[in-house]
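ingest -> validate -> predict -> emit
validate: passed (alphabet ok, no gaps, 169 aa)
predict: started
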Amino acid sequence: DAVPNDIYVAGDGSVYATGYLDKSGVRTAMTVRFSAAGKKLWMKTYRGPDSLAATTWAIVRCPSGGVYVCGQVETSADKQDGLVMRYAPNGARKVFALDTAGGGTHNERFNDLTVTSTKKIIAVGCSSVNGTDDCRAVTYRSDGSIAGDLTIPGTNEDDGFTCVAADSM
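emit:
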């Protein structure tokens, strides 16, 4: 099954979609680009550095062309890590540094992302420790490295960011 989670329409009328493919319960992150006429230009899949599983939830325009996508990836070392990738208009992919929140028993997931006027990428979601989710935000540089991160501990309930936006400031 193919499950699109978010779309972006580029200035040239082409359409990018991101989400996942589910085959026998294993999720593979998927991003696809269609021409303005509806022809599939490319489709890229990703299952993480250990080829276990990945999902993408959101997509945003990259100022230099193409898109950024975010979600989560399964790894053998850290369970679930926050995932950000960039796709150029030709489909070339760059995987950014995974958000491990220090590794160990943390599970990270990004639900949304935005690009600031200074071209920093901010991904938001949650970090889970012992089954309780806390709000998490990570700022990336355009080269894919992490510029900063923030976890906001909540109550004993599940907390997390679901969306983010940037203004001209």
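The CA atoms of residues 23 and 37 lie 29 Å apart.
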